[in-house]
Amino acid sequence: MKLSARNLLKGKVVKVVKGAVNSEVVIELPGGEKLVSIITNTSVASLGLKKGKEAYAVIKASNIMVAVDE
Amino acid sequence: MKLSARNLLKGKVVKVVKGAVNSEVVIELPGGEKLVSIITNTSVASLGLKKGKEAYAVIKASNIMVAVDE
Amino acid sequence: MKLSARNLLKGKVVKVVKGAVNSEVVIELPGGEKLVSIITNTSVASLGLKKGKEAYAVIKASNIMVAVDE
Amino acid sequence: MKLSARNLLKGKVVKVVKGAVNSEVVIELPGGEKLVSIITNTSVASLGLKKGKEAYAVIKASNIMVAVDE
Amino acid sequence: MKLSARNLLKGKVVKVVKGAVNSEVVIELPGGEKLVSIITNTSVASLGLKKGKEAYAVIKASNIMVAVDE
Amino acid sequence: MKLSARNLLKGKVVKVVKGAVNSEVVIELPGGEKLVSIITNTSVASLGLKKGKEAYAVIKASNIMVAVDE
């Protein structure tokens, strides 16, 4: 499947924190940056996400803001 | 100002494409990954975004999805 | 690629309206409902979207609201 | 009230899973597709959502991505 | 129709800037704050939005971030 | 840091409800309107959010919908 989301960053899962409905999933990029994602527990299970697994952070372009130092 | 958004990725603006209301802004991270953002033209102007400027991509954790290779 | 987005609705593209940066893409589901999506022109091109093509509407669960009749 | 959100899909609530702050609400469309939504518990209570109730899934066009089979 | 979105702010439209696909709509609250929204042109037309019209800004709770002064 | 988000509303935190992963934070504007936000617990802690603290609600323009009375 090919997706319209313009941003696809490959990394490795380094942490999964499970809540009642949602989980927090942390993905580390090769350069060391960490991305924090909130997805449902059902998705965590269906993708088999756990520490060490390769995964992509996927972000729609309209959900990225920009900031600059003042 | 300190923001609740959990994801703040520092990079450099490498492209700005202006539309009628929105612009597409491409930020390159130090590791070479490119992030594409859609923000309003007014924001592009008020932040002074242009090729070569340092900038951050800012993303709320609930707006990041996760994918895995099948 | 397998995605964490919980909502994946298969249909057919029935309209593409191109703007300067974004396009409006309308997907009709088998039951006749129409879904309207705004994605970048670059995505429209890279996915080869045009009238008649099979496509999926993909929606993160946290982006769906619920309403009821009063 | 009339809303700018371009996508309004009528269905029936088939599941509500309550967490500490958010709930997962599943709406089945007449054609059998299921949509999963994450909304706050307060919204679930104020809308009186429960299994069997008619409800709409409401989605802003900029929150729908598109995918195609490869 | 009653909506799950937790945030509904009543005000008056003070500006509409039309693009090719999307429009920028500015709503002024009674306290003088201005809210800027990007919605499709089709929504602007179907809601009859124009300067002076009463309107609500509608925001899902998961789309509001928080910031503090440092 | 200066942010592309077009909407920045100053107010005071009047409630924080903590869940397993996410918290609900309510900010009251000077005019008395209340805004409800869902952010991660980690953000609540790192911003030191608690009842009485001054804070801003931050919203990207593409995440604001518009509604009118019928």
Oligomer: homohexamer
Count of separate DSSP helical elements of chain A = 1
- Order of strands in the sheet with the most strands of chain A? 4-3-2-5
Largest interface, by Cβ-Cβ below 8 angstroms: which chains and how many residues each? A-B, 39 and 39 residues
Kindly identify the CATH topology of the domain at 7-52 in chain A: OB fold (Dihydrolipoamide Acetyltransferase, E2P)
Query: Which regions of chain A are unreliable across 5 or more consecutive residues at pLDDT < 50?
Result: none
Task: Briefly say what this structure is.
By secondary structure, the first copy, chain A, is mostly beta strands. The first copy, chain A, contains one helix and six strands, in the order ββββαββ.
Q: Can you offer a commentary on this structure?
A:
The structure is a homohexamer of 70-residue chains. Chain A has 70 residues and is mostly beta strands. The first copy, chain A, has a domain at 7-52: OB fold (Dihydrolipoamide Acetyltransferase, E2P) (Beta Barrel). Chain A has one helix and six strands, in the order ββββαββ. Chains in contact: A-B, A-C, A-D, A-F, B-C, B-E, B-F, C-D, C-E, D-E, D-F, E-F. Chains E and F meet through strand 2, strand 3, strand 4, strand 5 and strand 6 of E and strand 2, strand 3, strand 4, strand 5 and strand 6 of F. Strand 1 (2-3) of chain A pairs antiparallel with strand 6 of chain D, so a sheet runs across the interface.
